[in-house]
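Input structure tokens:
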């Protein structure tokens, strides 16, 4: 399954702070439909992600009926991204 969407980078200030982009509701619904066959535990879904020219492997995290794409520091640096930036995210479910 391949998914592409636009979203805003946001910062989670929890005990382990991290940057994310939230997958829209429609695509999250599609991911939830296949999650049972692709998750490796806790509902996370392994994907290959792309923002700009940068590709990386990560896992989507379920939260409040949607999925979150973690945006690593190396990706933000390579693409010159900051909190609040709008990005196009491409996902390929592994």
């Amino acid at each position: 399954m391949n998914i592409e969407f636009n979203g805003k980078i946001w910062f989670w200030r929890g005990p382990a702070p991290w940057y994310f982009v939230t997958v829209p509701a429609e695509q999250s619904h599609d991911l939830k439909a296949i999650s049972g066959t692709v998750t490796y535990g806790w509902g996370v879904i392994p994907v290959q992600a792309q923002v700009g020219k940068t590709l990386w492997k990560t896992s989507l995290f379920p939260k409040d009926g949607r999925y979150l794409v973690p945006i690593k520091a190396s990706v933000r640096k390579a693409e010159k991204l900051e909190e609040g930036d709008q990005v196009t995210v491409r996902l390929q479910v592994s």
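The chain has one domain: 2-93. Helices lie at 25-38, 73-79.
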